[in-house]
Design goal:
Number of helices of chain B: 5
Distance between the termini of chain B: 47 Å
Strand order of the largest sheet of chain B: 1-2-3
Strand content of chain A: 5-15%
CATH topology of chain B: Sufe protein. Chain: A
Number of strands of chain B: 3
Number of domains of chain B: 1
Shape of chain B: globular
Distance between the termini of chain A: 35 Å
CATH class of the largest domain in chain A: Alpha Beta
Largest sheet of chain A: 7 strands, mixed
Helix content of chain A: 40-55%
CATH class of chain B: Alpha Beta
CATH superfamily of the largest domain in chain A: Type I PLP-dependent aspartate aminotransferase-like (Major domain)
Structural class of chain B: alpha+beta
Oligomer: heterodimer
Shape of chain A: globular
């Protein structure tokens, strides 16, 4: 049975040209870019070329790109690093209720250390209001961090407006762009971004490599200290193969965005309209328009999310759920809660995230098998009354 | 998946005794405050022996599988024997549950105890 992968927001397969670009950097060009000899020189050249490629893609300068181990490290560095470097100027951070845990948990830690954090609410579509950001600013605000597009519900936040507000008040602005780099246009100057987190494995690059864009003159206290790599902002021997792969992945994503974005958006709409049209008592979570091209987040009344996930998995269809019973915390999704979705509906939710691997036939197949799976679970469920 | 045994998967995909019983002799309806799952268990009892059991569950794979298993374990058992069935016994009968899913088996035990309580209350 050929699997149908609809969980690209969790991770993506490494694109073959990406893997090919990486391979020489394991056993042949294995030098440490920090070494002076020819072996080091070759690795250094590859590292800096990769940095340049990615910088150009987001409208940045090469020296503003700091490579990390992934989105979590980038987010932790941004939050804790700015908090540490600016604590003499203030102790207030503004973020939203729909951030990834790699933002929320560092913020919770900072609160224990005496920082004050404002978690801005969102509307029913998951949108942060730019006016709310402006209203939350105090004389002590040192950082604003708002996710570019939400990983669960796919809502794209008004980052340009928020960036302009941050600029106006001369406050550092970070965005978690893990779900957007390579998927939708992204330019740090146009969006007024000072810090940006991204991760290679969300755009057909390898796992274990990410970046933190840090605008020039933004001082940040490093999370990792040691040999002073990455301009003293992130010590650790560079993951050369991973970084080369990341750059190749960005290059491909940028070159293909004009064709992949409309293609995947069309597949998304076909799947979305197919589900809403053929399975009753289903509804979309998140914004319909201001939405990632690949994200669908749907609640199926009376059906627990993981039960549907398992049923689909048995048919070779991979998706994900934010349902309580699947998460380690056993509490419903904080994102759906922030959107005002009641717990029972939240626990009845499944996310489908599309990508390059999907075809029209995949979507048709999913639409063909899903109604019966939902129907079966509804028959078991005490929460769903079948129409006679 | 989440480390479910084959037996859990089998009971999830082909649950036994799904549904309700008309004029039941005992009903247990419970909600799991931990994760929001809901289970209803219906009993038919003759001469202190459970002759039929049906369930309906809103819950994850483990919740549905444990619901199914508990019905299998109690049919044919006396009320006194059914009283002794613990959540651990249900989980063991399924070849074990992932640690994070053990709370799901508690739901099945609670539904059973409540249904037995209900039976004994009705009898009085």
């Amino acid at each position: 049975m050929k699997g149908i992968y609809l969980d690209h927001a969790a991770t993506t397969p490494v694109a073959p040209p990406v893997l090919e670009a990486m391979l020489p950097y394991f056993s042949q060009l294995y030098g440490n870019p920090g070494s002076t000899h020819a072996f080091g020189e070759k690795a250094r050249y590859a590292l800096e070329k990769a940095r340049e490629t990615i910088a150009v893609a987001i409208g940045a300068n090469a020296d503003e790109i700091v490579f990390t181990s992934g989105g979590t490290e980038s987010n932790n560095t941004a939050i804790k690093g700015i908090a540490a470097s600016k604590k003499r100027l203030g102790n207030h951070i503004i973020t939203s209720a729909v951030e990834h845990h790699a933002i929320l948990n560092p913020c919770h830690r900072l609160e224990k250390e005496g920082f004050e954090v404002t978690y801005l609410p969102v509307d029913k579509n998951g949108l942060v209001k730019a006016e709310d950001v402006a209203a939350a600013i105090t004389g002590k605000t040192i950082l604003i961090s708002i996710i570019h597009a939400n990983n669960e519900v796919g809502t794209i936040e008004p980052i340009a407006k928020i960036g302009a507000i941050a600029r106006e008040h001369d406050i550092c602005f970070h965005t978690d762009a893990v779900q957007t780099l390579g998927h939708i246009p992204l330019n740090v100057d146009e969006l007024g971004i000072d810090l940006l987190s991204a991760s290679a494995h969300k755009l057909y690059g390898p796992k274990g490599v990410g970046l933190l864009y840090i605008r020039r003159k933004t001082v940040i206290t490093p999370l990792l200290e040691g040999g002073g790599q990455e301009g003293n902002r992130r010590s650790s021997t560079s993951n050369v193969a991973g970084i080369v792969g990341f750059a190749k992945a960005v290059e491909i994503a940028m070159a293909e965005m004009a064709t992949q974005r409309p293609r995947i958006t069309a597949l998304r709409d076909k799947l979305l309209e197919g589900i809403l049209g053929t399975i009753k008592d289903t509804h979309l979570n998140g914004a319909r328009e201001q939405r990632l091209p690949n994200n669908i987040n749907i609640s199926f009344s009376g059906v627990e999310g993981e039960a549907l996930l398992l049923s689909l998995d048995a048919q070779g269809i991979a998706c994900s759920t934010g349902s309580a019973c699947t998460s380690a915390s056993l509490s419903p999704s904080h994102v759906l809660k922030a959107l005002g979705v009641p717990p029972q509906i939240s626990n009845s939710t499944v996310r489908f995230s599309l990508g390059r691997t999907n075809s029209e036939e995949d979507i048709e197949h999913v639409l063909k098998v899903m109604p019966a799976l939902v129907e079966r679970l509804r028959k078991i469920s005490p929460l769903y009354q079948q129409a006679p | 998946m989440t480390g479910y045994s084959e037996k859990v998967k089998e009971h999830f995909h082909n649950p036994r005794n799904v549904g309700t019983i008309d004029e039941p002799d005992g009903v247990g309806k419970v909600g799991n405050p931990v994760c929001g799952d809901i289970m209803e268990l219906y009993l038919k009892v003759e001469n202190e022996v459970i002759v039929d059991a049906k369930f309906r569950t809103f819950g994850c794979g483990a919740a549905i599988a444990t619901s199914s298993m508990v019905t299998e374990l109690i049919i044919g058992k006396s009320i006194a024997e059914a009283r002794q069935i613990s959540n651990k016994a249900v989980a063991e009968a399924l070849g074990g549950l992932p640690p994070i899913k053990m709370h799901c088996s508690v739901l099945a035990e609670e539904a059973l105890q409540k249904a037995l309580d209900d039976y004994q209350t009705r009898k009085k």
